[in-house]
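LOG
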Amino acid sequence: QVQIVESGGGLVQPGGSLRLSCAASGSFFSINIMGWYRQAPGKQRELVASISRGGATMYVESVKGRFSISRDNAKNTLDLQMNNLKPEDTAVYYCNSWPATFSWGQGTQVTVSS
């Protein structure tokens, strides 16, 4: 059974940066499209960025130009570089396949506040 572990979150001031990382066991990284999702308090979980095995990326409009998703298929890693963070980016961030087919990990909390 695949276990997903997200890390790298924290408290950062507006305009700051964070880099999130995703590690997983099993066959997780053999999946074609992987993504980073987030869930803000009182809101539904949403996909914010995805990347295919070939490197094709997609970003939700609100993070374009600020977030960058990357994966290393050889090292089984999936990262999300987040720059120029805004208070509205505050959420718990998760990684999963797209569409999400694996059990969700605990996520990593990102809080953007002055």
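LOG (cont.) second protein
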Amino acid sequence: QVQLVESGGGLVQPGGSLRLSCAASGRTFSRSIMAWFRQAPGKEREFVASITGTTGVTIYADSVKGRFTISRDNAKNTVQLQMNSAKSEDTAVYYCAAKWGLGQYEYWGQGTQVTVSS
């Protein structure tokens, strides 16, 4: 059984930085595709960023490109999301997700709240 546990959420001022982390267990992490999604109040969950297992190829949503950076440490089974130049519209619950093939993300964390406010 795969488990994903997010940490690092909290309150950040506009223009500030925050680093989210997700710890994975239960399956060969280095072969996974990991991603971050977010869901703001009253909105659907949306893709934020993803990173492949061994090659580390990244994809970003246009709304976060140039501000957020996704990275992973296969030795520690973790994936991070560095959030810089935070905006109020980044306020959401952030979810870590994982998959081991094509198609939909199979496993999800419980989410961590990020609030951007002064």
